């Protein structure tokens, strides 16, 4: 392979200048080259971050989302909807079940994650 990680020498410049779209192979190659998780490259920079870097990000221009919520989605810890549903239920005090968020999250994780990636209860 002549090109490091499959990106041609002018590829980075083309990506930076908007002349080349980043596909999944490029994303993985860049993550390997930078020694970071692909999720780090996908995470939008927060607007109005506080001293911890937390703020809001926009996946939809009309819907600001908490940075932790988006990060948890990108790293398959939670869905975009269950966290918001639980927050809304708690705000309205219409959810008497303290396990609501946990149960919804676990259903989503079982549906989303491959078996090898699921954490098992009781494992160290």
From TrEMBL:
Starting at the broadest rank, the lineage of the source organism is:
Bacteria, Bacillati, Actinomycetota, Actinomycetes, Mycobacteriales
Gene3D superfamilies, per the entry: lambda repressor-like DNA-binding domains
For this entry, the protein name equals Uncharacterized protein
Please provide, alphabetically and separated by semicolons, the GO molecular function terms listed in this UniProt record: DNA binding
Q: Which domain of life is it from?
A: Bacteria
Listed InterPro entries? Cro/C1-type_HTH, Lambda_DNA-bd_dom_sf
Organism of this sequence: Mycolicibacterium fallax
């Amino acid at each position: 392979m002549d090109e490091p990680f499959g990106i041609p020498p002018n590829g980075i410049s083309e990506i930076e200048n908007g002349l080349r779209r980043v596909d999944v192979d490029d994303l993985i190659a860049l993550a390997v080259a930078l020694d970071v998780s692909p999720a780090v490259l996908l995470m939008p920079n927060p607007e109005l971050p506080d001293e911890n870097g937390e703020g809001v990000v926009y996946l939809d221009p009309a819907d600001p989302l908490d940075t932790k919520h988006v990060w948890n989605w990108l790293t398959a810890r939670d869905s975009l909807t269950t966290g918001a549903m639980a927050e809304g239920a708690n705000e309205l005090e219409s959810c008497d079940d303290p396990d609501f968020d946990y149960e919804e999250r676990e259903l989503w994780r079982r549906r989303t994650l491959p078996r090898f990636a699921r954490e098992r209860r009781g494992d160290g």
